[in-house]
Each structure stands twice: as structure tokens, then as C-alpha cells.
Amino acid sequence: MDEADRRLLRRCRVRLVGELQVAALWDALLNRELFTPDMIEDIQRAGSGSRRDQARQLILDLETRGSQALPLFISCLEDTGQDTLASLLRTSRRAAKQDPEAIRALDLKPVALGPVSLRPEELRVAKQDPSQPSQGKLAPVVLGPEELWPAKLRPEVLRPEAPRPVDVGSGGFSEIRAQDRAKGNADLAYVLNADPCGHCLIINNVNFCHESGLNTRTGSNIDCERMQQRFHLLHFVVEVKCNLTAKQMVQALGELARRDHSALDCCVVVILSHGCQASHLQFPGAVYGMDGYPVSVEKIVNIFNGTGCPSLGGKPKLFFIQACGGEQKDQGFEVASTSPEDRTPDSDPEPDATPFQEGPVTFDQPDAVSSLPTPSDILVSYSTFPGFVSWRDTKSGSWYIETLDSIFEQWAHCEDLQTLLLRVANAVSVKGIYKQIPGCFNFLRKKLFFKT
Prior knowledge:
6-stranded mixed sheet; 14 strands
């Protein structure tokens, strides 16, 4: 789906969720091959299963169904007598084609942020001369539209000549003692005393069907072996599944969630696959099954919520995603020097990329988030920033997994997970000609120290 159609759907989302009669649409959506029967079932099970939850999920999933998804959806509305909504979308789409700025005008307007005490005329002065803020008052920061998007900024900063491990934290010996105190305090750190500690499921998709248009992920088996060995050493029961379709991925994750985790302390999911951007409410991105159909990270995480997996309530659930977040290649910005170790002469990096790129994210409508519970005890670690490719060397595996394994080997015995992931982000960020930086969505309530 092109950006103009996606923006139009988001613009109309509240009205669609409020008025869409989804029950009448299922047959029409199947007949026009907009969704498969399995996808329809997933939409019907969304949230509480109410009409509004189903409508909301349908609109979100529609954005991933190709360039003709919106006109086909409009035809489905007309087929089922929902002419008012069909007319709204068709008329708005025609207007957007004639005047693309008609939709863009609804994007965010610049907002000046500053102390409450600043009057409008003071804001204007600060904006004109930000180098001379008024005494005792902060200079406001102006957030603007497209031309100020972070992807287009090129800050001038320096970074170290080469990634290098730090022997101790910035607090030296006192920081090490603080880590030790946190380990033994159940109020500050999760208790991981069970042996085995928990289950670890690794889904490794290497080969994809020809119709999907996705390339073989050469080097992924190296990543899989690394993660299998690493989590075994961290006292997890590791299970590996390879080359699963989207439906089989959901089934495997569901089977893991339905197990009894009462005697265990943690659960880990590692997914190695191609990926893309996807509409979301909480967790961005999607990963592909070997059949070329995507499964959203949000759906993967929600399989392990309190309803689907009650025996993991209050226990940490960790997800490590090695897949692309989009197709942009980050060339970085000029720095003082580049490490000669960034790329070896015989290395052959390639992206886990797909021809799907979501545009700048606008704020979701309030209706889309009002009924969602806040996730807890969940951490999702991504190999790359949303919107960018994730690099994988065909001979040595992906940058992210290789670094994750190395950092865990060196530091997992004494540092918590969040600190480990900061080390990973720093080390990966200085690799290669094209750049990559991992990130995470952290909803853990405590520090997590692996059992070593």
C-alpha cells in the first residue's frame, strides 16, 4: 500500500472503527483475496473479539495487503451495502490523488515546547536566537513537520575510534557492588533460581518459497547455532524450529505459551527471519514466514499476555528479533575515524530487507489505544531501528546476533540485561559502511540477571 493510501486510512480510522460492520465483510474479503481464511480468523480473535476490536485490527492489517488493498476494500464495502464509508474513502482517495498535500496537511504542526512561564513573544525570540536564551529560562525546542524528521538530520558528533569493551562501569567498583546488591534483592531484580531457568524457542527461517520473492538468508544457521549454545549455557531448555510458514510460527508460539511455566522463572523467544514495517499500537515491525506472509511482532508478544499464558504472569518474557525494520540503508554521518575492524576483506554483508517501507508515523487516534492494557514484564530487542535494514554477513552471521552472543559471553555473569543490550547497541553501531543500531522496547519492572 502506498503512503497516500496508508495516510488516508489513518485519517479515517476513528470513523471506520466506529461504523464498520465487519461481520458482513468476511466473505467479500475472501472472494477478492484481500485476506486468507487464517488471517480472517486472526482478525476475528483480535482483542476481546468485539466488533470494534475486529474493525480496528482489520484496518491495521489492511495496510500490509499490497498496493491495491484500499480500492479492493472500497469495493468490498460497496458489495456489502456500506456505501457511506465506501463513498468517504473513494472521494477522499480521489482528492488525495489530485492534491497530495490535502492529506499531508493533516500531519503534525510545529509545537513549541518550553517552560510554562514563557509567553508567546518570548518563545518567538528564543526561536530566532536559540544561542541566547533568557536568563533562568530554558530555550524552547521546536518540533516540526517532514523537513525536520530525525531520518533527515545529520548531527555532527564524534564516536570512539573502535568498539572496545569496558572493563567496569563508569562507577567502577562501587557500581559492581551495586549490581551485586540488586541481584540479591527480589524488589530490584527478577529471581532466576530455577534450573532449568525456562524455555527458549528459536525460529530460524532461512529458505523462502519462490512466490514470496524473499532471498535465502545465508548465514542465519550460524546465528541459530550461536543462540542455541548461548541460551543453553544460560540454563534454558532450547528448542529450534526452522523454515516455518506464518501460520506455523503462530502455532509454535501458541504451543509454547500454553505450556505450564509455573516452576520456571523466564521465557525467551528468538526469531531469525526477513522482516518489514507494519502498523502497530505497541510494538513495531513484522517478521515473515517462509511462505512470504508476515506476522507482526505485536501479535507475537500478545500471544504471551496474561490471558494466553497465565503461568508466566509476573515473570520476564524476552524477545530477540533479528530481521529488517524496513528498507532504508543508514549511511551514518561523518566521524573522526573508522575502525579498520568494521569490515573484513572477505566479508559479504547483506540486508534482511524487503520492498516494504512504512512512512513517517503519525499519532494514532485515541480510539485505537484506549482499551489496551499496559504490557509488563516484557522486553523486545530489535536488531535495527524501525525503518532500516538489518545487516547479515553470509559467512559469519548477522552483526546483531554475533555481537549479542559475544557480549553475553563476556558480561552476562555480572551485568543486567539492559546494560548488556547497551553494550550490544554501542558495538553494532560502529560496524560496516552502512550503519545499524539495535534498540529495544523495555517493559520489565526489575533488573534481569541471567543465571550463569
